[in-house]
Design goal:
Layout: H1 4-7, H2 11-17, H3 22-29, H4 33-41, H5 48-58, H6 69-91
């Protein structure tokens, strides 16, 4: 398995984070095993359509696939805190 920093996106880390295997991604997307294997190992480039579909079946935002899962989750938390803080501030 290639690391995200090696292939330009974090598909393998997200699959692991979601407790999914490549075969699950095949089942969820309808893609052939060879296609999934090729972009998970970096043998073929990912496209916007691939990112969009992977994100959709994993329930994440497409841009999160360009970040390690823990970093994306940290950013989600910060965004939620920002909205929470700004919401309270506007109530005054």
């Amino acid at each position: 398995m290639s690391k995200g920093s090696d292939i330009g996106w974090y598909i393998n880390e997200w699959l692991a984070y979601r407790d999914l295997a490549q075969v699950d991604l095949c089942r969820l997307t309808g893609w052939k095993k060879a296609k999934v294997s090729a972009f998970c190992t970096g043998r073929s480039a990912y496209t916007r359509d691939i990112i969009d579909k992977c994100a959709s079946v994993m329930g994440i935002h497409p841009n999160e696939l360009l970040l390690p899962p823990q970093r994306a989750i940290e950013l989600r938390r910060l965004e939620a805190l920002k909205h929470q803080f700004l919401g309270r501030e506007s109530d005054n």
